[in-house]
Backbone:
């Protein structure tokens, strides 16, 4: 970027402009984006013209399908989203301290990490720092990686989901995640043994989104067994919704053992005697490369390591 462009951006680009870009990226419609940031459409149009003039190139192509980002626009939108996320987290942290708190920690986490490593680390953290505001977001690895990329979380527990993500994030293994095939207690399959995977395909399934590592592994195991994917599927990233659907339908689901453990003990769910997910890699700590984290975040990482070591010994 030459000096003239840099000078123009410093003098003319405001956070309201960044908010408009993010709203446009979400809506791909100027009227809806203007509504989202509470400005009139003519004002939003002028703001977009100012932004494109400051950058010196077009950010969106206008066509019958709406507004599509140009290649340079895509890079600019990613910057706008990261900047707004940083500002939002900074403002929340300041507000927490202003009200007598001790800042904010935002963590992305897959559902398999929540019942054990995450829960124990958060419990100890809050016992020592009760005024620290802790937020936990996400449920699947594709979700938490996206949250980390958008800078909406400080760190995450999950897995890398594409081969090139190691260029953006550091990964530190923390724990294994055993998967179980489960149905409700009164399911017709609950009393059947032995069972094979091919006997389950005709039943309804509740599966994680296709972009998640667990779903990818499930499809790979079907391929190895020469089986086609189930045709009756509900895709669900929410662990709460999945558990409710399981208990109120004849569906089968593949879920982490840590998530279904209490449901199995309470005999609300039954584990089917079919091994699956054995090759699913363990989850771990994900953090953006070459980024200094806050002291609470670093302390929380130390607690995660402490409890992950305990779980590995116990396992």
Residues:
């Amino acid at each position: 970027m030459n000096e003239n462009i840099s000078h123009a951006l410093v003098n003319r680009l405001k956070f309201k402009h960044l908010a408009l870009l993010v709203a446009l990226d979400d809506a791909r419609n100027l009227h809806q984006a203007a509504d989202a940031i509470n400005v009139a459409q003519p004002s939003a149009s002028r703001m977009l013209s100012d932004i494109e003039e400051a950058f010196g190139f077009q950010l969106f192509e206008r066509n019958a399908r709406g507004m599509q980002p140009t290649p340079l626009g895509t890079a600019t939108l990613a910057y706008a989203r990261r900047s707004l996320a940083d500002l939002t987290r900074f403002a929340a942290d300041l507000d927490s301290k202003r009200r007598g708190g001790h800042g904010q920690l935002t963590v992305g986490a897959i559902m398999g990490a929540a019942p054990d490593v995450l829960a124990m680390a958060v419990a100890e953290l809050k016992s020592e720092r009760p005024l620290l505001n802790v937020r936990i977001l996400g449920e699947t690895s594709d979700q938490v990686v996206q949250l980390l990329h958008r800078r909406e979380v400080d760190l995450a527990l999950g897995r890398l989901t594409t081969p090139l993500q190691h260029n953006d994030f550091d990964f530190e293994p923390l724990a294994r995640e055993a998967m179980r095939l489960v149905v409700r207690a009164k399911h017709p399959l609950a009393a059947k043994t032995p069972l094979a995977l091919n006997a389950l395909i005709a039943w309804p399934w509740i599966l994680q989104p296709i972009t998640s590592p667990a779903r990818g592994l499930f499809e790979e195991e079907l391929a190895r067994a020469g089986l086609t994917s189930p045709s009756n599927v509900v895709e669900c990233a929410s662990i709460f919704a999945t558990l409710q659907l399981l208990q109120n339908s004849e569906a089968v689901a593949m879920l982490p053992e840590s998530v279904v453990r209490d449901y199995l003990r309470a005999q609300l769910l039954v584990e089917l005697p079919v091994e699956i997910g054995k090759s699913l890699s363990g989850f771990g700590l994900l953090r953006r490369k070459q980024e200094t984290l806050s002291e609470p975040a670093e302390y929380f990482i130390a607690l995660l390591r402490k409890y992950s070591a305990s779980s590995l010994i116990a396992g």
